Amino acid sequence: MKEAKVASMKIFMFAPVYRKDSLNKKLIRLAHEYVESLPGYEAELREFNDFKMPLYDGDIEVNEGIPQGILELAEKIKAADAIIFSSPEYNGGIPGVFKNAIDWLSRMNPVPVEGKQFFLMTATPGSLAGARGNHHTRWPLQILFAHVYPKYFGVPRADQAFDENGKFKDKKHEAQMQKLLLEFLTYASRKETPFDNLDVFIEEQKHSHPSQH
Ligand SMILES: Cc1cc2nc3c(=O)[nH]c(=O)nc-3n(C[C@H](O)[C@H](O)[C@H](O)COP(=O)(O)O)c2cc1C
């Protein structure tokens, strides 16, 4: 069931991976095609390779400042109402290239991901659909007060999942992806999330039950 959406929400999409034939790039392209097909969304898909950045180094930060690629990535994130990304799982966790980008972003003030809505997708040739990396990948974003949607979309055996045109061979994958994306977008389009104003809520609770604090 579709809910009313805010006029033209801006969605920024990327796969934090460099490999040309990346399965996650295939997945985010399909997600982008779907989001673009929905009325009321303006979805921009960018190659992570476009955002050039060195490994985080405090000396580079002091002497040269935040790298240009990170400033550009930050602009895209800041301008977006929601961010959808498809990340591989490396050794049960977040790939170093993505963690590196988050580490650079976290050195900006304000931190661009703070308060932003994120949706995580993942494609892997393995059978667990990125279930282990899901926890680890969302963690640094959440530490920075981003809201990462509790559900994620993972494609297991993704090396077999796409046809020569990059479409899902199994329509069940397509249906599940579309269902979750729509659910996330509907959630993200709400003006207030359960986590907005959490600090105000906690303060109010202290004053209403002073003895418990
Ligand atoms: C360093 C490294 C670690 C990996 N660890 C995992 C893993 O923990 N779980 C998994 O399912 N696949 C793992 N893989 C396999 C990746 O899922 C696979 O290479 C995938 O194609 C990478 O995503 P991409 O196609 O978008 O580049 C690993 C691959 C590499 C290079």
Summarize the structure.
It contains seven helices and six strands. It is α/β, with parallel strands linked by helices.
Write the topology of this structure.
Layout: E1 9-15, H1 23-37, E2 41-47, H2 58-64, H3 68-79, E3 82-86, H4 96-105, E4 117-123, H5 131-143, E5 147-148, E6 153-155, H6 171-188, H7 198-208
Parallel strand pairs: 1-2, 1-3, 3-4, 4-5, 4-6
This protein binds flavin mononucleotide (FMN).
Flavin mononucleotide is lined by residues 17, 19, 22-24, 88-92, 124-126.
What descriptors fit this protein?
6-stranded parallel sheet; binds flavin mononucleotide; 6 strands; 213 residues; 15% strand; 7 helices; globular; Rossmann fold; 40% helix; alpha/beta
What this model shows, in words?
The chain is an alpha/beta fold. It has a single domain (9-208), classed as Rossmann fold (3-Layer(aba) Sandwich), CATH 3.40.50. It is 40% helix and 15% strand. Strands 1, 2, 3, 4, 5 and 6 form a six-stranded parallel beta sheet that branches. It is globular, with a radius of gyration of 18 Å. The N and C termini lie far apart (43 Å). 34% of the residues are buried. The model has no long low-confidence stretch (mean pLDDT 92). It binds flavin mononucleotide.
